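If you are new to this repository, start here. Below is one unmodified record pulled from the training split, so you can see the exact layout before writing a loader.
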Amino acid sequence: MGLQVGIVGLPNVGKSTLFNAISTGKAEAANYPFCTIEPNVGVVTVPDERLDKLAELVKPQKVVPTVIEFVDIAGLVAGASKGEGLGNQFLANIREVDAITHVIRCFDDPNIVHVNGKVSPVTDKEIIDTELQLKDLESVDKKIAKTERAAKAGDAVAKKELEILKLYKTHLEAGKNARNIPVEPEDKKAVYDLHLLTAKPVIYAANVSETEINTGNKWVDELRESVKGEGAEVVIICAALESQIAEITDSEDRQMFLDEYGLKESGLDKLIKAAYSLLNLYTYFTAGVQEVRAWTITKGWKAPAAAGVIHTDFERGFIKAEVIKYADFVQYGSEQACKEAGKLSIEGKEYVVGDGDVMHYRFNV
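And here is the target side for that same chain:
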């Protein structure tokens, strides 16, 4: 499954700098609004020590990590929901992503103009929230008008749907995001077709200076306080530092650089982990002499659905799955050794794939 994360934020918060640093795509970074006119897409490999270990044991011809697409989306200003700035384009692009990384400026630099004149992470967050909420409210209102006609005609399903839509309307009008509405999961089906912008999971990337990457600052504290109860992740990053990390190609040199700043991992790694956590994603592996490969699935998926990520024929013609737990594969060193030790299990259609499982499928179409 392809995972796509949109990088959003007000102009001059470090959004495009971060995108340039963490992806293979390159956006123009400049000290003025709207330097990124078209959405830029960059593909980043997901670092996974387990994949490296399996490759070391199997010695395949090819190693294929799973990837994330980062989309740098044009800057947003107040009034975007009504088409101000690049609003319409921004809102259209953001509908397509699985999750949002909202870059918030948490640093002070007189040489970099703030679009609203001063650093205020909570205000910045609220500006974008408001614009997305207004656009969602527009979508909900349109569906309410349509559903009301069916409800008045006596359609019981439409009546129930109308009740749920009105709950969303009230929630959005109160300045709250759709992802936080207190309704049952089943009831959320009423708005699935609307692809509500504020229903998407969010990672807040607090962009700080190099000297505050480990400690944070008052602005990070304000941001954390303001997003309590959202179920969102707050990740401290330094876009300028990430630019330097991205230029280091040697893994040992990169680790030495991180050590100098007291960092265990890069901002990219933190963002990827946050995205996987927010979206309840797992990684499983296939391991053979031709290829060792990582595959991304949603937590709770059963074996046939996980097989379908490789090819739809695998899911359609699924018979059985051969499963080795990652820890067992590492302990015994090979598939054959795991078989001999009784650590390879044969699982059917009801098997729920675990994070790190090493899988081989039997299928017939």
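Two things worth knowing about this chain: The chain has 13 helices and twelve strands. The CA atoms of residues 160 and 347 lie 40 Å apart.
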